[in-house]
Amino acid sequence: MSFTTLSQMVAAQNAANTAMTAPDGATPLSYGRLSQLIDDTQKRLNALGLGRGDRVGIVLPNCPEMATSFLAVAGACTAAPLNMAYRADEFEFYLSDVKAKAVVIAKGAETPARAVAAKLGLRVLELVPQASEGTGCFTLEAEPLTGTSPTTGPAQAPDVALILHTSGTTSRPKIVPLSHTNVCASARNISRTLALTSADRGLHIMPMFHIHGLIAGILAPWAVGSSIHCTPGFNALKFFGWMKECRPTWYTAVPTMHQTILARAGGNADVIAANPLRFIRSSSSSMPPQVIAEVEAVFKAPLIESYGMTEAAHQMASNPLPPAKRIPGSVGLAAGPEVAIMDNDGKLLAAEELGEVVIRGENVTLGYENNPKANAEAFTHGWFRTGDQGRLDAEGYLTLTGRLKEIINRGGEKISPREVDEVIMDHPAVAQVVTFGMPHPKLGEEVAAAVVLREGQALTDKALRDFLAERLADFKVPRKILFMAEIPKGATGKLQRIGLAEKLGLV
């Protein structure tokens, strides 16, 4: 696996092997055809005036073309996948923030991203599927950019392949640039952890605008020449049908998905028995040990819990495959980067001492873009501070004890409280707000908000949620809104998110 770019990764595989299939008998995509698609798209983007270093947004649903366009765009430019659920204001923020030059949208698709692209003067690249050539094949239709001199040719190892935002708590969402070196290293790390081979088949159900779905779901299998079955995204009603159709050897998901699948497993025991899995992977938030045990009992396969984040191009630690020891409640051993525990003063701590989890390695971003303050806070002596609290045992198994950051983790969806605050404050009746996470039995956390209204103003929680629903993706809209005369403050007079759910009796 001696590749340093995504194009090289695909080209290194057996051209005749299947890279991707899709439901309902779609024509399989070979590695040879995928490699050709990447080359053709690179030349097409160059001809349109786009090249290395140029940012191209991708606004597509979960589909084979989303997977292939991510690789193809990254092979020539920098890919910026975005959530289809975003509203116009969100598209405008993210596309402006990354300084996108163009955006890929399916031809004929209706999305607020079109109007935003027009407003920002961005070229829309109309993606036209060519499924008869293999699932995920496409062409791009657009008028060339004028007055541009792109850096042409295939992307190189130091070039930024992927750019995503990570939510900030005390500031706006931060831009995380990930180079080809970063994402290729992470793909190799994950494929090694899971012992993936060309004989494996992954059932892909994760969103492709998330680091989890992109790196673990797509790149790790393609790093070793195995295939993925690309679905339209998670659907518990269709999961076992897809399982029967593609006969996967594994899948990766977040805990809430596993729990939903588990709830339907009883009626699909025959499918499970006829299609044995080699393993199941879980990441993006913690899985209760009781649920791990139940999943393993039902599927008769080991559940491998992993720990990842965007800044590490996903995987940082993972429980190993049997026969190595797995510890329920632990996120396992370092699985790619070095992992250590650090105190507030930058001193590395000994086994069993509690502190902040820090990492370093070739999969870790070199730093947030245009954010020297965040970088100064995030990096200490070459180590990246994750913002998570935990301890390592004598054998190197990592246990997380809580988040130092205030990010709300709603079933694996990371939400910036400040982002929600700012949208709520746009309502003319609102004087003050603090968004925070409150415990939820299945999602881990749910979004809540404490709101103080302006004097003489009236507002219902439904009216406020309706207001927010037009400006925020559904998963960011608070499910619990408390109208208060005053929001509790800390000793220094600051509004504090951490512990607020408990103070307000929501625990």
Can you offer a commentary on this structure?
The chain is of the alpha/beta class. 29% of the residues lie in helices and 27% in strands. The chain has two domains: 6-303, ANL, N-terminal domain (Rossmann fold, 3-Layer(aba) Sandwich); 408-503, ANL, C-terminal domain (GMP Synthetase, Chain A, domain 3), CATH 3.30.300. It has a nine-stranded mixed beta sheet, sandwiched between helices. A five-stranded mixed beta sheet has the order 4-3-5-6-7. Strands 17, 18, 19, 20 and 21 form a five-stranded antiparallel beta sheet that branches. Strand 22 (408-410) and strand 23 (413-415) form a beta hairpin. Helix 4 (88-97) packs across helix 5.
Helix and strand arrangement:
Blueprint: H1 6-11, E1 18-21, E2 29-30, H2 31-47, E3 55-59, H3 64-74, E4 78-81, H4 88-97, E5 100-106, H5 112-120, E6 123-129, E7 138-141, E8 160-166, E9 174-179, H6 180-193, E10 201-204, H7 211-222, E11 227-230, H8 236-246, E12 250-253, H9 255-265, H10 269-274, E13 279-282, H11 289-299, E14 303-309, E15 314-318, E16 333-334, E17 338-342, E18 355-360, H12 372-378, E19 379-380, E20 383-392, E21 398-403, E22 408-410, E23 413-415, H13 417-424, E24 430-440, E25 444-453, H14 461-469, E26 480-483, H15 500-503
